[in-house]
Amino acid sequence: MEQGSRSARQVALDALTACERQGAWSDGYLKKALRSAGLDSRDAALATRLCFGVLQNRLLLDDYLGRLSTMKLEKMEPVVRNSLRLGAYQVLFLNRVPHHAAVSEAVELARCGSKNPRSAGLVNGVLRTLVRQRDTLAPPADPAVRYSHPRWLADAFAARLGGEEAEQLMAADNSQPPTCAQVNTTKASGAQVLAALQAEGVEVQPHPWLPDCLLLSHTGSLEALGAFQEGLFYIQDAAARLAVLAANPQPGMRILDACAAPGGKSFAAAIAMENRGQIVSCDIHPHKMALIQAGAGRLGLDCISAELLDGKTCKEEYLDGFDLVIADVPCSGLGIIRKKPDIRYKDPGPLEGLPRVQSAILDNVCRYVRPGGTLLYATCTLLERENEDMVSCFLERHKDFTLERFELPDGFDGADQGMVTCWPHRHGTDGFFFARLRRTAPLS
Predict the structure, then answer these.
(1) 380 belongs to the catalytic site
(2) CATH of domain 3-140
(3) Of 11, 35, 193, 282, which residue is least crowded by CB atoms under 10 Å?
């Protein structure tokens, strides 16, 4: 194999090992590693495919490898375990990679990275056996293993959806999400942006049910596209855009986006407002202010200003000050497994504390909604305790808020009650929840 291909595999191995040893996020680590490795676009795509593919199928790969290895996987060095996973993923899932090449590259990774001189022989033996038996190995009967979802998460999905639909959701979690481009209609129409992207060689399709949304493929570097640099579009999943549309921002409104980074909902609101009004986009992390400001500047949305603010801390001058407050709160992120496959493997223990954080943010930012104004609560998770249960508890504490219905395309249950969950397997979107709440105006 070419040196570039070995470098791609090494980057993938480093990312997988960092995820295990350091708790790194694969997407963030990969971006830095790909830059420092200087891979061309083809090898960068291979490294990303290998890393994400192993993470999407880790429990399944471990099941197969565990049947063939005399040493338990948990006893191996992380670099050896992940070399095996990389080789097994290529043998089982990548038809264009010759089996002998997948095996030899995995052996070389183990030889270079392991402290044990026998590791290379172990990897060689296990993967050669896998190549011989790949067509006769029975897949695991348990869907949680087959789709590589930890037992607690598979059980949570099954309790919510039933076993058959939970299996469909887990399969969707392992699929490739579309790249959704939201058109900046303050600068161009959807048809104009579609034509501009096609002229740059991008494959483009209009979204099937969301206006001014385009599905992109074969983009290359998005940031290098002229249409991107001109601010004709930004990247945001259809579900997140739908949440903002449910809140119904209007020209001239004063809006607070309480947990705004990297700014997608602020951008969606500003475009819906025709860039007329005021949006204050807040986040707790200083470095994310620059992301919001850069995005707004590229899109030409000068109604947006970024401010450093903790959503749990009251800012007195904001009380009763906004027509709409958007609270897309920190959450477990279990609706975006397609984009961040390693989220599923994070320790579920700390997730139990998230509702306290979410409640604290809601209890604070709801006071910024003027009487008669709107509060949009949103998460990118699918757990009821962070979604429907959170809204129910909030309404018990705040009698001056009520759920309010909104209009959405067909196929989204709950809009007439004011709460909607978007599902990857039903709607082709991220898993996403949002609720629209109206603060009742005092009696005159």
Answers:
(1) yes
(2) 1.10.940.10
(3) 35
